[in-house]
Design goal:
3% of the residues lie in helices and 51% in strands. It starts with a strand and ends with a helix. It is globular and about 50 Å long. Strand 4 and strand 5 (46-54) form a beta hairpin. The chain contains 2 helices and 30 strands. By secondary structure, it is mainly beta. It has helices at residues 298-302, 317-320; strands spanning 4-5, 15-20, 27-32, 36-43, 46-54, 59-64, 70-75, 79-84, 89-95, 100-105, 112-117, 121-126, 135-138, 143-149, 152-157, 161-166, 173-178, 184-189, 195-200, 204-209, 219-222, 225-226, 229-230, 233-238, 245-249, 254-258, 263-267, 275-280, 287-291, 309-313. The strands form 8 sheets. It has a 4-stranded antiparallel sheet, with no helix packed on it.
Length: 323
């Protein structure tokens, strides 16, 4: 398998979030536990470093503005930031009482931002109305993962509660369930908005449809398992064109899957460390993934000098197109 490591100013610690712009510019951003947020311009398997911002503590999440001219950032200092790339400025616009785990900007109104925190709240912000949220939604547990593809928002918290919101009709939760899996790691909406994929520390993924008439299509499967060893599913990314998806895990592997045929399309070579995050670019021609420690073995594992890298892979059609 041919892949390329980003050598131009790569992260020096594990990557906590990884996102392409949804525009043809192919800008890629990574937040890292080295306290930096970095941006690269990607041309196929070539990466050119654009810039970085340092924070007082680790950033955990980021979201591109719809026009790709700004980046919204949250992290362990409890602050939400706007990094204006054109003005080369950064400012805080909101705050939680605990770290911000997820942040998203609305696609058509770039003044509207939502944040999800370990303080058990989701806050909605309007950048035109100062530093007070316009709405606060309370959950039972800490926000562990969120995904938004307007108008839908899905959230999984530390109590294994899964919440679905239709933001087009307000801030009310339209569906609430509880997962039978162990601790959540990631939740990701289908590109067609019919449902979501949910991954956990027990190496499984659940495919769940939102509409009652499609519930018979729900299923779950084991993915990051090796004989009697179980590895966490750290991230899930859907291909924007085909609706197939990638999973990455603590076993140092990434897989491509088709949910319609319930089949595995590709298995990567093993890397010598966990894969923490992944992302497809706007047309699915580039797949980026981050190799680094994810603390699945606690402090003992953190002392090992293993690979930390940010990589690019160009998927072949047969590897990612539904069978």
């Amino acid at each position: 398998m041919e892949f390329t490591k980003i050598e131009d100013n790569p992260p020096l610690d594990s990557v906590s979030s990884l996102h392409f712009t949804q525009k043809p510019e192919n800008l890629l951003t990574a937040t890292s536990w080295d306290n930096f947020v970095r941006i690269w311009s990607i041309d196929k398997d070539k990466a050119k470093f654009i810039g970085k911002q340092e924070f007082s503590s680790a950033p955990l999440c980021s979201s591109w503005s719809y026009d790709s001219k700004a980046l919204f950032i949250g992290g362990t200092d409890n602050q939400a930031y706007l990094w204006n790339l054109e003005k080369e400025s950064i400012e805080s616009f909101g705050e939680h009482s605990q770290p911000i785990k997820e942040i998203f900007s609305f696609p058509e109104n770039q003044n509207l931002i939502l944040t999800g925190s370990w303080d058990k709240t989701i806050k909605f912000w309007d950048l035109r109305q100062g530093q007070n949220p316009i709405n606060t939604t309370f959950l039972e547990g800490k926000v562990f993962s969120m995904d938004m593809r307007f108008p839908y928002l899905v959230v999984v918290d530390s109590t294994k509660g899964i919440y679905a919101f239709d933001l087009g009709s307000g801030y009310n939760c339209v569906q609430r369930t509880r997962s039978s899996f162990k601790q959540a790691r990631v939740i990701s909406l289908f590109p067609d908005l019919k449902g979501y994929a949910f991954g956990s520390i027990d190496g499984r993924v659940s495919i769940t449809y939102l509409k009652e008439e499609e519930k018979d299509n729900n299923f779950s499967f084991r993915c990051h398992w090796k004989e009697n060893e179980i590895f966490a599913v750290n991230d899930i990314a859907f291909h924007p064109k085909y609706g197939t998806f990638a999973t990455v895990g603590s076993d140092g592997l990434f897989y491509f899957w088709c949910k319609e045929t319930k089949s595995k399309l590709k298995k990567s070579i093993p890397f010598e460390n966990s894969i923490t995050r992944c992302s497809f670019n706007h047309d699915g021609s580039i797949f980026s993934f981050a190799v680094g420690y994810d603390w699945h073995k606690g402090f003992i594992g953190s002392t090992a000098k293993k690979e930390r890298s940010l990589c690019l892979y160009l998927p072949k059609e047969k590897e990612i197109q539904a069978k």
